[in-house]
Amino acid sequence: MYSLFMKRVTRMALATKQNQNLIQIAMLTTAAEEQRTQFKTLNITVPNPFVYHVELNRPKKLNAMNNTMWLEIGKCFSELGNDPDCRVIVLSGTGKVFSAGIDFADAAQIGARLSETEDVARRCKILHDTIKLYQDSMTSLEKCPKPVISAVHNACIGGALDLITAADIRYCTSDAWFQVKEVDIGMAADVGTLQRLPRIIGSESLVRELVFTARKMLASEAKECGFVSKVYDDKDSMLKGAIEMAADIAAKSPVAVQVTKRNIVYSRDHAIQEGLDHIRFWNMAMLQSEDFMNATVAQATKSPLPTFSKL
Ligand SMILES: CC/C=C\C=C\CC(=O)SCCNC(=O)CCNC(=O)[C@H](O)C(C)(C)COP(=O)(O)OP(=O)(O)OC[C@H]1O[C@@H](n2cnc3c(N)ncnc32)[C@H](O)[C@@H]1OP(=O)(O)O
Fold this sequence. Notes:
Blueprint: H1 2-38, E1 42-48, E2 51-56, H2 67-82, E3 88-93, H3 104-116, H4 120-143, E4 148-152, E5 155-157, H5 159-165, E6 169-173, E7 177-179, H6 193-200, H7 204-213, E8 217-218, H8 219-224, E9 230-232, H9 235-250, H10 254-268, H11 272-286, H12 290-300
Parallel strand pairs: 2-3, 3-4, 4-6, 5-7, 6-9
Antiparallel strand pairs: 1-2, 7-8
Helix pairs in contact: 2-4, 5-6, 10-11
Bound molecules: ligand LTDHYY67.
GO molecular function: delta(3,5)-delta(2,4)-dienoyl-CoA isomerase activity
Catalytic activity: (3E,5Z)-octadienoyl-CoA = (2E,4E)-octadienoyl-CoA; (3E,5Z,8Z,11Z,14Z)-eicosapentaenoyl-CoA = (2E,4E,8Z,11Z,14Z)-eicosapentaenoyl-CoA
Pathway: Lipid metabolism; fatty acid beta-oxidation
């Protein structure tokens, strides 16, 4: 009699748990729906609990980055950075290519504004503010404490390469190619590539070759030099792999993952002792978190990974 009662209670508890999971996915989908409608150039979905998929979404223009897209990337990553329902972000592009870089039509509009402005100081202000806005847009990926996995297929040119240098993890398809195209349009790259690329690929010589010549780097070379960590046969398998990796990270303590990201970014830009000081101050607080206690007990007792509350 008692065991029958327990079986019923267990079944009810499981059903409640399943319902809770369904409710959670439904709530996340609604939140993503709200975000999706908010953006004109980005498509946002939630393929797994806590995993957000952001797609550059101007396929007819090969996801060229117009002013709206620069603005929306910054807004999107800063909002997801603060959203407790989001723990990891996969970034990809819809349509034929990942992105053809800056939108020429929008760049021409900036040119038109400049030509209407007579004074050099005012013209400089227009350019300064535009470059700053675009820089901040790219840096929003790095400032977002949630890991960003970029998944590139086919072309990734100019501004698009600036974008993925600010991501945490880079995957691509075997047909992907990368091009620091700026010198070919008569400018020095100014929104992140020159600063981040040398820190991603070990060879300064290769970086300089790529930025001075604007030659294409194919997927095989990108893998060989460590720019991407995985190459997939096609886009479907890449997105599946990226989302699986994201789900794996999302199951871990958000405290551990986010403090890790903040500190790896900080340590890249500081001396070793400064990095050590930084993490010491973070962890004198974070090691008191329930996540640390629960995860340590689970590891020590060979129990499954606990579930962690939202952060
Ligand atoms: C403050 C400054 C901050 C940042 C600066 C960044 C600098 C850069 O990003 S430099 C890189 C600029 N981009 C390029 O040079 C790439 C230009 N595009 C191409 O070379 C080709 O389109 C391609 C990627 C090789 C693909 O070729 P193909 O398959 O033949 O397609 P297309 O017919 O050329 O293009 C289809 C469609 O997309 C439009 N388009 C492509 N690229 C852009 C772009 N960068 N800006 C605006 N529109 C673009 C193209 O015009 C076509 O549109 P239609 O309406 O069908 O004509």
